[in-house]
Amino acid sequence: MQKTKLKDTLLVGERKKPTGPKLEEAIEDVNKKNAKAKTALLGYARFDVIANRDRMEFDVYNQRPIEPNHVHGILSSFQVNGVDRFNQLHAIPLVVNKSWLEPGSFIAMGDTPDLLPELKINDSAPRDWKVIAAGGQHRVTALGKWQTQIEKRLKEKKREESTILSTDTEMVGEDTLQLLNTEVRAMIYEMEAILANKGQWIVSIFDDSES
Predict the structure, then answer these.
(1) DSSP secondary-structure letter at 170?
(2) Which neighbouring-strand residues pair with 45?
(3) Both ends of the chain: CA-CA distance in Å?
(4) pLDDT tens sequence across 72-118
(5) Sheet holding 92-96, edge to edge
(6) How far apart are CA 119 and CA 117, in angstroms?
(7) What does DSSP say about strands 131-133 and 92-96: parallel, antiparallel, or unpaired?
(8) Shortest CA distance to 157 belongs to which of 181, 184, 191, 183?
(9) CA–CA distance, 18 with 7 (Å, rounded to integer)
(10) pLDDT tens digit string along 14-37?
(11) Which residues contact 63 (CB under 8 A, 6 or more apart)?
(12) Three-state SS for 122?
């Protein structure tokens, strides 16, 4: 008696084969989320991430604790290379209710740092408003530490300047004057200019109604 093969029955469900090459489901899911994020992207702005640190919720999309080594690495980069705070590639993503934003406080493209407006929250937002930060926690922490270091160095240089200026004129030589004018004050002016940026950083803004 000839036996029936499983392939000759209807027990095996039919499933269509992919019509072409296919990415893994996890990758396709990421691509779908990225496409959705693009539709929710409102634009770019400057945002003081230090002054507004308590208004930023970092643990909604990423619940990883802060890694001290990671923070130290970023801080070291700031010290050696400077703070590239308005580079679009380093934008911190913020998810916020679009209706809370002041018109004109963000722009569509983030590749023109000089044109970046400061993000402003209007009066329609709750008094205790918060925005979701979908990344950048280590960067913000490192920026705060770096800013504290610059403020400390500035105080030291101002004390040095004050000491020189309070010295009797006849006790001040050319070397001291040169030190004051070409080094001490130059460093003071540079640090003051850097600190004038406060805790501002470029942010990419996403409408939470599209999330």
Answers:
(1) G
(2) 203
(3) 62
(4) 999 999 999 999 999 999 999 999 999 999 999 999 987 888 899 99
(5) 41-48, 200-207, 92-96, 131-133, 56-57
(6) 6
(7) antiparallel
(8) 184
(9) 20
(10) 566 666 676 666 555 544 444 445
(11) none
(12) coil
Cβ partners under 8 Å of residue 76, min gap 6: none
Sequence-ordered strand ranges (E) for the chain: 41-48, 56-57, 92-96, 131-133, 200-207
Contact 203, 96 (CB under 8 A): no
For residue 77, the SS3 value is: helix
The tokens describing 3, both together, are 């036996």
Give the list of residues 6+ apart from residue 198 with CB closer than 8 angstroms, or none: 48, 50, 51
Q: Which amino acid would we find at residue 127? A: R
Which residues, in sequence order, are bridge partners of residue 131?
Answer: 56
Residues 14-41: b if buried by 16+ CB within 10 A, e if exposed: eeeeeeeeeeeeeeeeeeeeeeebeeee
Written as one letter, the residue type at 150 is: I
Residue 129, pLDDT score: 96
- Asked if residue 132 lies in contact with residue 206, where contact means CB atoms within 8 angstroms, the answer is no
Give residue for tokens 């893994």.
Answer: 24
- Cross-strand partners of 207: 96
Distance between CA atoms of 49 and 198, rounded to whole angstroms?
Answer: 9
